[in-house]
Design a protein that fits this description.
Spore Coat Polysaccharide Biosynthesis Protein SpsA, Chain A; 7-stranded mixed sheet; 8 helices
Length: 258
C-alpha cells in the first residue's frame, strides 16, 4: 500500500461564506502538512470566498479552486470534489471543514492510520476524542444521532456523521459515487455505510473538535430532517432485506452491511 509519506493527498474543503476562516485554515494546514494539497469547492459564496480562494491559489500551487454557481448541499460539493480528485490521480482524498473545527495539526493522526485502513475518520466519540465549546444539548444530539445510526444500520463506527476524513482513491472507486443522492450531512453516514458494505476497512482516530469562531453553522432543521428521514429509511430497508432474503434486494441506493 502507498504510505502516508509518499501518497499524493488532496483535502477537499467545501465553502459557503467562509472568507473569514479560509486563509487561516490554509496557513495552518500547510504549516502542519506542507505536502498536502487543497481543493476549495465554493458554492457561489456571497461574501466572496470563491474569489478569495482563487487569489490564494494564484500564489500557491498546492491550492486549487472549484467554483460552483449555487449552494447545492454538502454532499454535492464533496461529490464534485471527489470527481475532480479522481480525474487527477490523487492517491488519498480527504474531507475537512473550512471553519477551523477540524484541527490541521491533527491531520497526521489520520494519515498514520490510513496505512491499515481504507477510510479513516477523525472521531469525537472514541476514547481520547472530545468537543470544545459545545453546549451540552448539541453534544447529546450528536451522540444520540450516532447511536441511532449504529442501531439502525448495524455498524460499529462511533462517529459516522463526522466530516474529518481520509479515503484511499480505491475506496471512492469502490462505493458507486454515481448513485449517491444525499445532499446534507447525512452524506457522511452514507459513505461510511457504503465503505463497510464494500468489505473495506474503516478506522477511527480521536480528534479535538472545536466550535467555529467566525461565521454561522450550516446545520439547519431541513438538513437534520433529511438525515433522520434517510437513515430511518436505510434502517427499515436493512431489516426488510434480512427478513425477505435476496429476492427483496433493492436495485439502487445505499446498501448497508448486514
Amino acid at each position: 500500500m502507498t504510505s502516508a509519506a509518499s501518497a499524493r493527498t488532496l483535502m477537499v474543503v467545501p465553502t459557503y461564506n467562509e472568507a473569514a476562516n479560509l486563509p487561516g485554515l490554509l496557513r495552518r494546514l500547510h504549516a502542519a502538512e506542507p505536502d498536502v494539497e487543497v481543493l476549495v469547492v465554493d458554492d457561489g459564496s456571497p461574501d466572496g470566498t470563491g474569489d478569495l480562494a482563487a487569489d490564494l491559489a494564484a500564489t500557491d500551487p498546492r491550492v486549487h479552486v472549484l467554483q460552483r454557481r449555487a449552494k447545492e448541499g454538502l454532499g454535492a460539493a464533496y461529490l464534485a470534489g471527489f470527481a475532480w480528485a479522481l480525474a487527477r490521480d490523487y492517491d488519498v482524498v480527504g474531507e475537512m471543514d473550512a471553519d477551523g473545527s477540524h484541527l490541521p495539526e491533527q491531520l497526521h493522526r489520520l494519515r498514520a492510520a490510513l496505512v491499515d485502513a481504507d477510510l479513516v475518520i477523525g472521531s469525537r466519540w472514541v476514547p481520547g476524542g472530545r468537543v470544545i465549546d459545545w453546549p451540552r444539548r448539541r453534544e447529546l444530539l450528536s451522540r444520540g444521532g450516532n447511536l441511532y445510526v449504529r442501531l439502525l444500520l448495524g455498524i460499529a463506527v462511533r462517529d459516522a456523521t463526522a466530516g474529518y476524513r481520509l479515503y484511499r482513491r480505491t475506496t471512492l472507486e469502490s462505493v458507486d459515487l454515481a448513485t449517491i443522492a444525499s445532499t446534507g450531512y447525512v452524506f457522511q453516514t452514507d459513505l461510511v455505510a457504503r465503505t463497510l458494505a464494500a468489505g473495506l476497512r474503516v478506522a477511527e482516530v480521536p480528534i479535538d473538535f472545536v466550535e467555529r469562531v467566525h461565521g454561522e453553522s450550516k446545520m439547519s432543521g431541513q438538513v437534520a430532517w433529511e438525515s433522520l428521514r434517510r437513515i430511518t429509511g436505510w434502517g427499515v430497508r436493512r431489516r426488510w432485506e434480512r427478513w425477505s432474503g435476496p429476492a427483496a434486494q433493492p436495485r439502487e441506493g445505499l446498501r448497508p452491511p448486514s
